[in-house]
Design brief:
The chain is an all-alpha fold. It contains 13 helices and 4 strands.
Length: 336
């Protein structure tokens, strides 16, 4: 099968979406975990674990939005028309989370900014989940125009996806904190990760069952060969990875749980993308119909060929510089 420019850009957008989800996802997971403690010293450590990297992590979300607009402008217009409310809530929540870092450090009373950090992370995670669930539910289109209602994204399937993504982010955040912390806080993070993994499994099975029964579009390739190689097989591999994740948590490994969590997200997102392909917006707007002109895609491909390696190298260098345990002083430590 010949790979067209829209197909190539579908893969590139998917890759950048994966990076945006897992990198900013563990940031959000750390924020959600912070809601589970009232100890200011602990919260400072939690915020300190992501303080040096969250700006760069969030950059992937910004670049993703620009690339999506440039490569698939028709799909961009449709998606943001249909999902305006969850996207708006996500942006506001991320803004509150961002300002909480600087304001908490200077505030005499850090409690309002603690809530901004935690609740902003929680709201952003749920908003992203509802946006993804609403998108996968299928948008009401006539040609390339959205003709549905403003609340179409709010449905039971989207709620299951939102809960699944929420627990997935907590899993990422908790396993990341296992790497970055020690002592009693690390022990608590092992417990948070096991709990989040269990609820993630429940939400994923429920969402998959709902999609199989209520969304023939998504399930059309799940058990039909050769399409199942790209959908059902990654899902089966995900079960194996999930078992290895639980095993690594039980044995209290430090790095392995986070690595298995990343692989689990990669497999789930790959299977989801394969379920949607070759559509830019399910159930009837194809990649070719939604893509920008060939010249635009070609110029963007050259530019992203330069930008993408630079961003990846910078991210890798940043994590190398800030590797190791988060110091006890944390980020904006609060003294009684």
């Amino acid at each position: 099968m010949e790979l067209s420019l829209p197909d190539l850009w579908f893969a590139l957008v998917g890759f950048m979406l994966f990076l945006a989800v897992v990198l900013d996802g563990f940031d959000l997971g750390v924020g959600i975990v912070s809601l589970l403690t009232r100890d200011e010293r602990r919260r400072s450590i939690l915020m300190g674990s992501i303080g040096p990297v969250w700006h760069a992590n969030l950059t992937w979300l910004v670049v993703l939005g620009g690339v999506f607009f440039g490569a698939f402008p028709v799909a961009y217009g449709v998606v943001f028309s249909a999902l305006y409310i969850p996207v708006f809530v996500m942006i506001i929540a991320l803004a509150f989370r961002g300002v909480s870092f600087d304001f908490r450090e200077e505030a005499q009373d850090p409690r309002p900014w603690n809530l901004a950090f935690g609740l902003g992370s929680l709201a952003a995670a749920l908003a992203q989940g509802f946006a993804v669930g609403g998108f996968l539910s299928g948008l009401n289109l006539v040609g390339d125009r959205f003709v549905g209602g403003v609340w179409d994204w709010l449905n039971p399937f989207a709620a299951l996806v939102a809960l699944g993504l929420l627990f997935g982010y907590v899993l990422l955040g908790a396993t990341y904190l296992v790497v970055k912390t020690e002592g009693d806080l690390q022990s608590d993070c092992y417990r948070y990760a096991r709990t989040a993994a269990g609820w993630l499994l429940v939400a994923a099975v429920a969402a998959g069952g709902w999609a199989y029964v209520g969304s023939p579009f998504l399930a059309r390739t799940w058990f039909v060969w050769p399409g199942a190689w790209l959908t059902t097989l990654p899902a089966c591999l995900g079960v194996v990875v999930f078992i290895l994740l639980l095993r690594s948590l039980k044995k209290r490994r430090e790095t392995a749980p986070f690595v298995w969590s990343l692989i689990l997200f990669a497999l789930m997102m790959f299977a989801t993308a394969a379920s949607v392909y070759p559509y830019a917006v399910p159930p009837n707007l194809t990649l070719s119909a939604a893509a920008a002109p060939t010249l635009t895609l070609t110029i963007m491909l050259i530019l992203i060929g330069v930008l993408l390696p630079v961003m990846l190298i910078y991210n890798a260098y940043q994590y190398r510089v800030f590797r190791g345990k988060t110091p006890e002083s944390g980020y904006g430590a609060y003294e009684e």
